[in-house]
Amino acid sequence: MDRKPSEIIQEFLQLLDESHEHFNEACSLIEAENSKTLVYTHLLEDCEDDELYEFAYKWRAALRERRRQCDRKALYENIHRFAISEQNKPVLKRLKGLLKEQTTTEEYLEIPYEEREYKKGATEK
User: Fold this and answer.
1) What does the longest C-alpha to C-alpha distance in the chain come to?
2) What does the DSSP assignment read for the chain?
3) Which residues make Cβ contacts (< 8 Å) with residue 24, sequence separation at least 6?
4) Of 16, 19, 42, 50, which one has the greatest count of Cβ atoms within 10 A?
5) pLDDT confidence of residue 114
6) How many C-alpha atoms does 65 have within 13 Å on its Cβ side?
7) How many CB atoms lie within 10 A of CB 84?
8) How far is CA 109 from CA 10, 118, 124, in A?
9) pLDDT of residue 125
10) Which of 3, 21, 118 is nearest to 72 (CA)?
């Protein structure tokens, strides 16, 4: 069976929550690597010739990891900004309310038709 609408809404809200962690962690790792650049430059100046290749190889690996983190930051940046925007807070609150309503409706619809209890609607008195 396909996913329920409530599952899709829940996954979207979860994505918004997780985007903060991914974005902030990537930013921290990028900053840490950026701060090492000056240190690596000084180490490169003092590096012995026979250690130069190994040093360059390690530095390149660190730069590639930095690039992966930059890509990760870019991947989650728009979602993160959307989720923290004051303009979107009412939308997120309404989505959470929608999730509760949708879950209640789905639970009701999972009851076989014959076993459902009829409750008078607002129009009948």
Assistant:
1) 92
2) -PPPHHHHHHHHHHHHHHHHHHHHHHHHHHHHHHHHHHHHHHHHHH--GGGHHHHHHHHHHHHHHHHHHHHHHHHHHHHHHHHH-GGGHHHHHHHHHHHHHHHHHHHHHHS-GGGPPP---TT--
3) 80
4) 19
5) 83
6) 14
7) 13
8) 18, 12, 22
9) 45
10) 21
**Identity of the amino acid at 44:** L
Q: Rounded distance, CA 51 to CA 88, Å?
A: 53
Q: How far apart are CA 82 and CA 88, in angstroms?
A: 7
Question: How confident is the model at residue 120, as a pLDDT?
Answer: 66
With beta carbons less than 8 A apart as the criterion, state whether 100 and 10 touch.
no
Residue type, 91: V
Which of 7, 19, 9 is closest to 83 using CA atoms? 19
Alpha-carbon span 63 to 32, nearest angstrom: 11
